[in-house]
Amino acid sequence: MKTLYTTSAAATGDGRNGHVQSTDGLLDADVRMPVELGGPGGATNPEQLFAAGYAACFHSALKLVAGKLGGDATDSEVVADVSLTALPSGGFGLAVALEVTLPAMEHEAALTLVKAAHEVCPYSNAIRGNVEVELTVA
């Protein structure tokens, strides 16, 4: 594999109730356990950070594939819903639902484009076979 880019971030404090910062300082945020999980809330959390990263990455893959396949990604949007799940083994996992809006395309053509983007996106490739990903075209 040829490395195209590497970045680093550090977590300090108390895990989900701590702080994260990228080495270049562009990401610099407190993290808190969400209220829904019994935490204090009031700050971002790992699932939100993953959702934001996946949505942005998938949107880039969508636009790349649209350019190659002649699709129209004008005014497109990707919403990533990331769920923390309880595994039967007692551990934790993630589930993802990606909702893609491609208003300039017919539904079937848009669905074909979304499936192609799912094959290209680095996040999709990294979690394939380990995290359930539901694809929806709005």
- Through-space gap between termini: 35 Å
Shape: globular
Q: Average pLDDT across residues?
A: 97
Strand order of the largest sheet: 1-2-3
Q: What's the helical proportion of residues? A: 25-40%
Output the number of helix runs.
Answer: 3
* Beta-strand percent range: 25-35%
* Total strand segments: 6
Provide the descriptors you would attach to this structure in a database record.
alpha+beta, three-stranded antiparallel sheet, three-stranded mixed sheet, 6 strands, about 30% helix
List strands and helices in order, with pairings.
Elements lengths: L8 E6 L2 E6 L5 E3 L15 H24 L7 E10 L5 E10 L5 H14 L1 H6 L4 E6 L1
Briefly characterize the structure:
With 138 residues, the protein is an alpha+beta fold. It has three helices and six strands; from the N terminus they run βββαββααβ.
Describe the structure.
With 138 residues, the protein is an alpha+beta fold. It has helices at 46-69, 107-120, 122-127, and strands spanning 9-14, 17-22, 28-30, 77-86, 92-101, 132-137. The strands form two sheets. A three-stranded antiparallel β-sheet has the order 1-2-3, with no helix packed on it. It has a three-stranded mixed β-sheet with strand order 4-5-6. The longest helix has 24 residues, at 46-69. The model has no long low-confidence stretch (mean pLDDT 97).
